[in-house]
Amino acid sequence: MIEFPVLPYPWQQQVWQQYLGLLASERMPHAIMLAGPKGIGKAHVALALAHYVLCASPVMGVPCGKCRGCQLNQAGTHPDLLEVAPEEDSKTIKVDQIRTLTESMSKTAQQGGFKVVVLQPAEAMNANAANALLKTLEEPANKTLLILISHAPFSVLPTIRSRCQLKMLPMPAREQVLHWIAPLLGGSQVAPELLIDLARGAPLTALSLLKDDTLEQREQWQLQLARLSQGGISAVELAAQWHTGDITALLEWLSALLHSVARLQHGHEDAVVARLPADFKVSLESLRSDVLQRYLEKLLHIKRLWNSGANPNKQLMLEELLMDWSALLRSGQNAAAGGGKLSGHR
């Protein structure tokens, strides 16, 4: 069972009304790409749009909840709503998945209306899968809607991107997120402002921080990185501790932390850095901005490599990343020495 009806979040009302207008005027494109930062609800609004399109009699901009299409969507069994994502234990959308999708899209909708596909994330398609999707995009069947979701649209094959109507969804306003998230915290002792700061403004990411031991895990990573920064543990030892955990979440956390440091270096106050232990904060504030930028670029490369399904050696990847971290700190401690040259990826 899934939430029903799925309705757009408050910060999505403008894009929602735009798509309702396109549907009403029969000008909806066959393929759209919803792009923007992680954690803002792109998949949510895509599913809301799918439910709306598959409803026989929408009422005041929402699914009626009574027709056969709504009943099937409520049960999560609508045969004309297809969702494509990396299979379990995989980071990529494979060509066989796209071939199955293409075959299904070529058939008449079982409920006599639209066939809708929600594919996410689009950048997870490998080259063969992306090329296989091109035919469907170039020769779309009648009454089909393909919704691609992307966190990094310029990592998507240009021929795919150019055949979709690209819609960039921005990070919502902080006050709007605060107003939305505060009532959802229940008896939590964590301030909504802290969650939003840790999530860099992304509302769904902020809410997810309350799940399980996510905040405690972040605190542990922070303490371990501080120990490495102060010489209390080696890069190899810390890599051995980190490689058994959630690497995706770890890389996202480290990236967010360093973006906060970069913001501080450009004169923007940052609440995340302000909350760090004094000694660790001082070491971060002393980082050379040029070398920090190079490290961030390398971290982005490693994130892409990790998310690509290339299956790099986790231990070696983390060792290199943490050794480069030590070099980054040395460059801040002794700028005149010109240290901190970052190594190439192994």
UniProtKB/TrEMBL annotation:
<dbReference type="GO" id="GO:0003887">
    <property type="term" value="F:DNA-directed DNA polymerase activity"/>
</dbReference>
<dbReference type="Pfam" id="PF13177">
    <property type="entry name" value="DNA_pol3_delta2"/>
</dbReference>
<dbReference type="InterPro" id="IPR003593">
    <property type="entry name" value="AAA+_ATPase"/>
</dbReference>
<dbReference type="InterPro" id="IPR015199">
    <property type="entry name" value="DNA_pol_III_delta_C"/>
</dbReference>
<dbReference type="GO" id="GO:0006261">
    <property type="term" value="P:DNA-templated DNA replication"/>
</dbReference>
<dbReference type="InterPro" id="IPR004622">
    <property type="entry name" value="DNA_pol_HolB"/>
</dbReference>
<keyword id="KW-0808">Transferase</keyword>
<dbReference type="InterPro" id="IPR050238">
    <property type="entry name" value="DNA_Rep/Repair_Clamp_Loader"/>
</dbReference>
<dbReference type="InterPro" id="IPR027417">
    <property type="entry name" value="P-loop_NTPase"/>
</dbReference>
<protein>
    <recommendedName>
        <fullName>DNA polymerase III subunit delta'</fullName>
        <ecNumber>2.7.7.7</ecNumber>
    </recommendedName>
</protein>
<dbReference type="Pfam" id="PF09115">
    <property type="entry name" value="DNApol3-delta_C"/>
</dbReference>
<keyword id="KW-0239">DNA-directed DNA polymerase</keyword>
<dbReference type="GO" id="GO:0008408">
    <property type="term" value="F:3'-5' exonuclease activity"/>
</dbReference>
<keyword id="KW-0548">Nucleotidyltransferase</keyword>
<feature type="domain" description="AAA+ ATPase">
    <location>
        <begin position="28"/>
        <end position="172"/>
    </location>
</feature>
<keyword id="KW-0235">DNA replication</keyword>
<dbReference type="GO" id="GO:0003677">
    <property type="term" value="F:DNA binding"/>
</dbReference>
<dbReference type="GO" id="GO:0009360">
    <property type="term" value="C:DNA polymerase III complex"/>
</dbReference>
